[in-house]
Amino acid sequence: MRLLKHPVHRAFQALARDHGPIFSLRLGSQRAVVVSSAALAEECFTKNDIVFGNRPHFILGKHLEYDNTTVTMSPYGEHWRNLRRIGAVEIFSTARVNSFTSIRREEVHRIVARLMTGGRQRVELTSAFNDLAFNNMTRMVAGKRYYGGGEFTKIMKEVAELGGATNAVDFVPLMRWLDRGRFEKTVKELAGNMDRFFQGLIEEHKSKEEKLESTSTMIDRLIALQENDPESYDDQLIKGLALVMLLAGTDTNAVTLEWIMSNLLNHPDVLAKARDEIENQIGSDRLIEETDLPNLPYLHNIISETQRLYPPTPMLVPRISTDDCVVGGYHVPRDTILIVNAFAIHRDPSLWDDPTTFRPERFDEISGAKEGGRFLAFGMGRRSCAGQGVALRVVGLTLGTLIQCFDWERVGEGEVDMAEAKGITMPRETPLEAVCVPRPNMKRFFP
């Protein structure tokens, strides 16, 4: 347990340098194996994907994830397959994602309009990206904006801060006794607040007493299915799906945007090249749209290179073996937690030339750069992130619009600090600030 210091992904990366790409350790009373190799990650998520199809059960999952029944934490089986099917058909299908295009556009334009109000100014981008990500997802899920804080953002922030696989009380029975239940009490209280919030949303949509902006939100759609099949679509299932959507689709997108802008501020040549691409493909007679994104390969390279260096989840959500198996020639017993260190794999010098350097061009130069376990920004295997398409649309449209509409500079002469903080995702240690200069020919779009 002494190794569980933050950032844990860097501690495990250092251990992999000394002990190899696969090593075992004891997390208190729990056996774990840490994988830091693309080939071994692929082996875990292909040949052994069913063996590693389940999640370990932690205190957070018990209370926050409805006794481990959400799509993120549910054991591999019929219930989990049903949740994935609902997600694929009712939430992440092309038709459903396209139906929310106007919401994503409006939220991006909202932030741009705020930044356009002044001339050259110093702006804090961390809170702006958090607001954008929250409002995008809450409008898609519930048809309402929660701009600027309040109960919902407070709950989600606390959930993200509590998360992770390194709470000592999950692994050391003695710690539970010494802790006297304080950690679990905190989680229970937070879970209660969260459940009441989501239940309130469901009741509001069921009553239809308030006119919402849309009748096609995720909650509305699931309530409609509930009316025909109440056993399969009960309130707990709806709340669990809403929780996963909001947790997975807010913090990760906001953090990714933070790191992208941090990298661009430190690499103005990359920023200039991205602007040239947008000028050549779109110009300044109109604003960028989601339909333009496939024609902006360098913009996608910037996103991919940022996710390589600063993956949204530096250590993939842990899994646990349901049977004995073999990984890399080593015997892995049943009930062993699997931790895949995406951060270490993304910076492996045997896979990536000059791995710590920010160079988006590498994704044009390397054939199959995202194959074979090399790139794990959205996980791998049957439990990979189902919302990848939505995330890339949100991040791509936001980034493209900010580059099209503004010139960006660092606040001071020194480079932007790239230190990481702790969390399920990998946020910056300090809020990101930048100098924002509206481009004169773009102001007319935001009168």
From TrEMBL:
<dbReference type="InterPro" id="IPR002401">
    <property type="entry name" value="Cyt_P450_E_grp-I"/>
</dbReference>
<keyword id="KW-0349">Heme</keyword>
<dbReference type="GO" id="GO:0016020">
    <property type="term" value="C:membrane"/>
</dbReference>
<keyword id="KW-0560">Oxidoreductase</keyword>
<comment type="similarity">
    <text>Belongs to the cytochrome P450 family.</text>
</comment>
<dbReference type="Pfam" id="PF00067">
    <property type="entry name" value="p450"/>
</dbReference>
<keyword id="KW-1133">Transmembrane helix</keyword>
<keyword id="KW-0472">Membrane</keyword>
<dbReference type="GO" id="GO:0020037">
    <property type="term" value="F:heme binding"/>
</dbReference>
<dbReference type="InterPro" id="IPR036396">
    <property type="entry name" value="Cyt_P450_sf"/>
</dbReference>
<protein>
    <recommendedName>
        <fullName>Cytochrome P450</fullName>
    </recommendedName>
</protein>
<dbReference type="InterPro" id="IPR001128">
    <property type="entry name" value="Cyt_P450"/>
</dbReference>
<keyword id="KW-0479">Metal-binding</keyword>
<dbReference type="GO" id="GO:0004497">
    <property type="term" value="F:monooxygenase activity"/>
</dbReference>
<dbReference type="InterPro" id="IPR050651">
    <property type="entry name" value="Plant_Cytochrome_P450_Monoox"/>
</dbReference>
<keyword id="KW-0503">Monooxygenase</keyword>
<dbReference type="GO" id="GO:0016705">
    <property type="term" value="F:oxidoreductase activity, acting on paired donors, with incorporation or reduction of molecular oxygen"/>
</dbReference>
<keyword id="KW-0812">Transmembrane</keyword>
<dbReference type="InterPro" id="IPR017972">
    <property type="entry name" value="Cyt_P450_CS"/>
</dbReference>
<keyword id="KW-0408">Iron</keyword>
<dbReference type="GO" id="GO:0005506">
    <property type="term" value="F:iron ion binding"/>
</dbReference>
<feature type="binding site" description="axial binding residue">
    <location>
        <position position="385"/>
    </location>
    <ligand>
        <name>heme</name>
    </ligand>
</feature>
